[in-house]
Amino acid sequence: MSYIDQEIGALLGVEESHATPDVAAAMTGIKRGIARRRHRRVATAGAAAVAVVVPTTIAHRAARHTVPPGATASPKPVGTNVSTLAPTWIPAGLVETGRSLFLMGTATPTWGATRTWSKTPDGVASVAVTDQPSKEAVSPHAGTPVPVIVAGRRGQAWADHSRGRNDYVIVVQWSAGHWLSVDVAALPDMPAIALRVANSVVGTAATVSSPVSCSGCTNMTLELFGDRSGWSGVAMTGNAIDFSFDRIPVQTDTVTVPLGGGMYAHLHANDPKVIAQLATVAKTVRSTNPDYSWMGTRP
Amino acid sequence: MTFEEYAEARLHALLRYATMLTGDPHLAQDIVQDVMIRAHSRWRQIESCDMPEQYLRRSIVNAYVSWKRRWSVRNLVSFSSPPDRPAPESTHEGIEPSDLWQRMAWLPARQRAVVVLRFYEGFTDLEIAELMGCTVSTVRSQMSRALARLRVAMQNNDLQESR
To answer: What distance in Å separates residue A262's CA from the closest CA in chain B?
Structure first.
C-alpha cells in the first residue's frame, strides 16, 4: 500500500471512531417523512385520479345534500378555516392524527381537505377521509373498480396495491363538484371498514384550520400531523418553497420563522432559483393561532 | 423482515456509512432519511431482492452524488466552517489528518465516493462499479484522479511545512 493509501486508510479509521450518528433523530425524521408522504399521497391522490372516462352513472345520481359552507366558495388565503365532510364512525383504536388542506382546480380553484385517523401519527394502518372538489368525475388510478352504494349514491371501490400500497379506496360523488373519498390502509377487512366509514359521513361541516398564513405564497398545500403530545407539519407552495413546522429552532439551509408556542416554520427553497425569495416570503408568514384540539380525538 | 425491523437494526450502520461518505453528519442524516423514506413505499420489492442493504447503500451514494452536484457551491461554504468536534490526532509527521479530511471534502462527489468505498468499505473495483452503477474503468479513473489530487494537496502541504 502506498503512502497516500495508508494516510487515507488511517484517516477514515479515525473519522469512523468519531462518527456518532444520532440514530434517534434520524428515526424520528424517517417516521415523520413516512407520515408526511402518506398524508401527501392521500391529499394529492385526487389530482391524479381525475378520470378521463366519466362514469355518468355516478354523475347523474349526484345527491342534493348541502355542500359544506365554504367548500365551494372562492379560494381563501391559507390561515382561514376550510369546511369539509365528517365521518361519524371510525374503527376502534384509531384517533385523528393528521389534516391536510389543498387547492384543486385551475380556473376556479377550491379548497379540499383530508382528515386521517391512525393509532400513531406515523402509523401505516389508517383511515383517511377526503372532501375533494372536482368538476370532473373521480375514478380509480389503480386496481379494478367495483360498484358500491354509499348513502344512496353510486360510487366505485377498488383495492390499490400499486407501489407497495395495501389500500382499499371508495369514491363517491357527494354533491355537485364534491367527491367523497375514503382510503383505508393496512387494516383487516378493509372493504367493510371503508364502506362503513363512507356510510357514516354526514353533510355537517367540519372545520379544518391552518396554523399559518403566507400572503407571499402563490398557494399552499398544507399537512399537519401529530397527537396530543405535539404536532408538526409540512407545506408546499406554488413558489417552489417548502415549509416544515416543528419545535426545532435552527435548521440548516432554511429560513426560520418563530410561530409562537415553541413552534417554528422553516422555509426551504425547492429550487435554487428561489433561494433569494426565501427572506421576502418569510416576512409574510403569520401564525394564525389555530385550534389543535382535534388531534388524538375520535368522532 | 418489516421495514421497521430493518430500520431498527441497520439505521446506525447506514448513518455511519453516509457520514463517512459525505464527511458531514448532518448531511448524512438528511440523505439517509430521504433514502429510507423513499424505500418505505417500495419496501416489499426492495426486501424481495434479497440485498436490501446493497440497494440502500447504492441509493445513499446516488443521493449524495446528486446532492453534491446540485449544491456544490453551498457545500464549499459548509466545509469551511469550523468542525464541531476536536480534530483527530496526526497519523503522519507533518500532515494533519484534518487537513486531509478537508481535502477529501473538496473532491468531486464521485471521486470521494470511490475513495471511501475503497479505503473504508474495502470494496474491489468491481464491487464499487456495481454499487455506483458505472464501469470498472470509470472507477479506476475516478480513483486515480482522486489520489492524484490528494497527493498534490499533500505535497503542497509538505512544502509549506518545510518553509
So the answer is: 23
